[in-house]
Structure formats: structure tokens, C-alpha cells
Amino acid sequence: MSLTMKNISFIVGMILLFLILWGTGYLEGDPEGYTGFGETADISPDDEEIVFIYEHEGESAVYTAPVNGGNAELVAGASEGNSLLNPTFSPDGGKIAYVEQWEDDDEQQLGKLMLIDRADGKIKEMTGGEGLVTEAAFSPDGQSLFFLEAGVHTNYSPIASERPHEFDIYRIDLDTEEMAQITEKAAYDMSDLDLIPDGEALMYRNFDETDQLVFHNLEDGSETTVIPMGDFAVDEPIISSPALSPDGEYVAFSDVARTNENGTYIYEGYRMDLETKQVEQITSFGEHVTSPVFFNNQDKLIVTVDKGFATLEPDYSYWVISTDGEERQRIQIEIP
Amino acid sequence: MNRIEKHVEEVLKQTQSPDGEREELREELLSHLNEAKSNYISAGLSEKQAEKKVIAAFGDSHIVGQELQESMYPFQRGLLYLIGIVTILFGAIFYINLIFVMHEPTPVWLTVQLLSGSVVTLAAINIAFVGRYFYLLNVLLIINIIWNGINLALMQSLSQLQAMLFSIYLLILIGLNFLFVFRNSYYSANQTDNKQQKQGFVKFSYIMNLLYGMIIIFLSLFFLWSFLVFTGISIQALITLIPILIWLIFYKFQMKLIARKPALSLATGLLVSALAIMLSFAILRFSFGGIE
Fold first, then answer.
1. CATH no. for residue A156?
2. Using a CB-CB distance cutoff of 8 angstroms, which residues of chain B are in contact with residue A25?
């Protein structure tokens, strides 16, 4: 073969290789979007129903389903391309609040607080949509909603992924729609807003170098931080998705129980007695357990298990567990 | 051009000798073959028959040329092929990984990776034209080192096992590149007149000077990375790459100096390397008023 032929065949070969690889990538295409359950679920005041998010190929909707499993019922869908998260029942079970998030034209993440009246199916936007609302909690009297709004959605360094930051807590009155800012912290990370049963204090998770469980007195704005005492696999306290029990005496959360052979943290459910701060482990799934919610009238909780944790896509399922950790059952949900 | 001259040209096409050396080889081969030719003619053969005989006795031009190349620059062409193909192969394997495991294929990355490998392979194919420019070859391979060094940094975001396997692969590739650049630099200066002892020292000096270069590349890429992390993507980020450019230009002259004055070049290499780093650091400080 002459030198020219050698050069030509090599270059043609490389172009072919490029086209084949590029074409394979192109045909494989964008992933179709997530299909599966959302991370959090809430239980109705009568302990009969759960509310959750289900996504089908990236299309997000709020559903309810019997807590014993069965057919799901569509409550509300998202506008195209938007995603829904963190649905929660009102104290009388008549309303469901949730968050709708989307990216605007400048790729800025935004989120608004939505409220649906289950009696007539009417959906109301509670916030304007200029900010990034992440979650909400009803006051025990059902008169107002407390919610978290992030000031920015960014990465402080290019090697970190973009996340919401500069959080503060707000309250909106459901009758007058009057809004009030509760905190002025512009916190790096805040989540898992909850109210104590008498409605006089808020509980939330704050991240300030480490995870903190904070109680915020609504009367005078004073704050107390609670540190759980227990036997965890990592020294630094990790208080993931804390939730208050209906009597306000316990906090359930998930924390690292151990590290598996790949070096991935295994999170299990824990329950802390707020009086003694003593913590006991209540699950042993050996998988990623998150987002516990207490039943209102029984010694049970719902937890989310993520079988896809530390992989590219989560794979959530909801489980009912007893507080002593003896029983556990997956809620089998049929999506229509 | 007669048949013998053509044959000699074919032989020379397989070697990477620079112009002077090529001319010497040509004369030597021609005189040798022409002498054989006159012998045949005096034995009673016609001119054409004599030429045919000489060529047949001399052997296939491809094989003789390759043997000549291997005796003067052992393994260099094969090494070049190896580096090119290993680079291309990495592009294919990693791109398939990007498609099916990471689900985010980046055609731009693939283009650069395949180009980088193709350039090296093409240099190996066309060794007679490219090989005589030793400095050019070094630049091509140092660019390959830089690019795969960037790849090495990217691997750290993968899962543990993948990161380890791909990193080992890339380190081997960078090692091969380094080996080639060292040998190529060494061959670039004709060493035949030097004593054994001095040759050892010259080799040492080449290795040290290339190590300076590696350190400069590593530091510059690290500066670039931190620059991007703290200030985002901007054209000023390229300032961090100035030391690499300075060192590359400097190495063009240094390559020859090392062969003549290995001890002195150890010092000049270090000096220029340090100055290059300091210069870029000074520009950065000057234009940004210090790090806040």
C-alpha cells in the first residue's frame, strides 16, 4: 500500500470510528426522564391515605393512595417540564400543599408553593414564583402555611453541583394570603420544616458546618439546637430528613448506620426521645432509608427506601414500619 | 532518476533521519549499489539487467528501510504507533462508558481525544516527513501528555473502581509518551562522537529537563484548575498556561544544549522553569491585585 493510501485509509477509518461512536451516543439519546416515586410522602390525619409524587418519564404529578396499598388517585399534575415535590396534608386532610419547581429561560431554578382544595379540586398558587420555594408545613390549626424559600440556586464552586442556598422561613396566612418572613438567616442549607403540636415553635434542619436540629420559638424568635445522642457510624452528626411525632415527644430522622463494601454510607431510620436526647435505631433495611413520617394515631411510621442510592437514578419505595422496628411492609401502589 | 536511485528513495521513506543524515545515507547507499552495479556490468550484464540484479540482491526497499530505521532509532516508530492507538482506544472505550454508564456523551471530548491520537498515529505513518523534525514530534507528544493529564484529573469524579482502572490506563499512556519524548530528544542530537560516560550524563540531563517540563505542566494545570474553580471560566484563565508555552519554546533550544553541555543545561532548565512559573504567577497577581 502506498503512503498516500495508508494516510487516506487511516483518516477515513478515524472519521468512521468517530461517526459510529457519535451516532451511538446520539441514538442512545437523552435519558427519557425519571420514572418512579418521589422522595417524600405524607400521611393523612386519619392514617388512611398517603400523598406522594409519581413521575412518569419526567412528568410529575401528585397522587394519593390507601396506606395499605392499592390504586393511586391523581390529585394534580404539573405544568409541562415542571417537577413537583414535598406534598403534605393539611391538619383536617382537606387540603394538600406541595411545591412546583422549574427552570426559567436563564436556567435559574424557581419554585412556587401550591395548595389544592380536595373538595373542589381547585389549585391555588400561594407564592408568586420569583423565588425558589422548596417545601412547606401547615400550622396545627390549619390557618397558615410555613414554607422555606431559597434566595439563590447556585454552586459556590464549579466542582459542586448547583443547589439552593440562602434559605429563610416564611409564613402565609391561608385566608388573607398575607406573607411574613420568619427568619433572616440566608442559611446555607435548611430543610424539613415542621411545627410542634401547639404551633408555638418550628422545627427544622439547618446545616452550619454540621447538621443541626433547631427549634425556633415563634413567639420571641429564640432558637435552641438539639444534638442527638446515639451510636452512629460517622462522628459528625448527620440528621437527615427529621420529622416530629404528632405528640411532639419524638423526632424521627435518618443517619448513617454503617458503610458498605463500596464505601457508600448506609442510612437507617432513628428515633430520638426529645426529653432525653437518646436515640434508638428503628430500621434495619440495609438500604438507604430516608424521609420518615409518623402516623397520627398509631405507633407506626412511613419511611422511603431508595434502592438506587449512590447510583445515577433513585429508586424509591414507601414502607410502613412499626416504631419498635419489628414490622415492615411495603406499600404496593398501582398507578393508573 | 534511474531504478537504483528510486529504490534508495523508497528505502529512505522508512527512516526518520533529518536532512543531513538522510543525505549521507543516500550517498552511502548509492555508492554501494552503484559499485555493485559496475561489477555486474563488467561481468557482462547490460545496464538494466545489472540494476535489476543489484536491487534484487539488496532486498525489498520497505524491509531494508525499516531495518535501517530500527538500527538508528530503535523502537521509536513502534512506540509512536502504540501511543497513537492507545490514545484512540481510550477515546473509544471511555466514550462508550460515557454513553452507557454516565449517560452524558460529549462529542467535543471525543473529537479532541481522537484528534490527539490520530495526529500521533499519522506522525508514525509519515515518519519520513515528520520524524526529521524532532522538536515538532516532541511538541505533538507533549500536547498528548497535557490532554491526557487533563483526562486524568477528570477521572476522579468517577466511581472508585472505574477511576482506578482508567487512571492506571492513562498513567501508562503518559508514561509511554514521556519515554518517547526522552528518547526522541536524545536521538535528536547525534551522540556518536561522545564517550560512554558522557552519554549517561546526557541522558540524565534529558530526563531531568523533561521532569522540569512535567512539573511545569502539572503546576500550570493545577493553577488553571484552581483558577476555574474560584473565578469561573474566563479568557484570563489561559495566563496559567503561559509557563507551558515558555518551557516548550525554551526546550527547542535546550534540546541541543543538553547534548553539548549536560551539566550547564541542568541549571538553565531549572532557572527558566522557575522563571516561567514566577512570571505567570506575577501576571496573575498583578492583574487581580492578589488573592482575596
1. 2.120.10.30
2. 95, 98-99, 105, 107
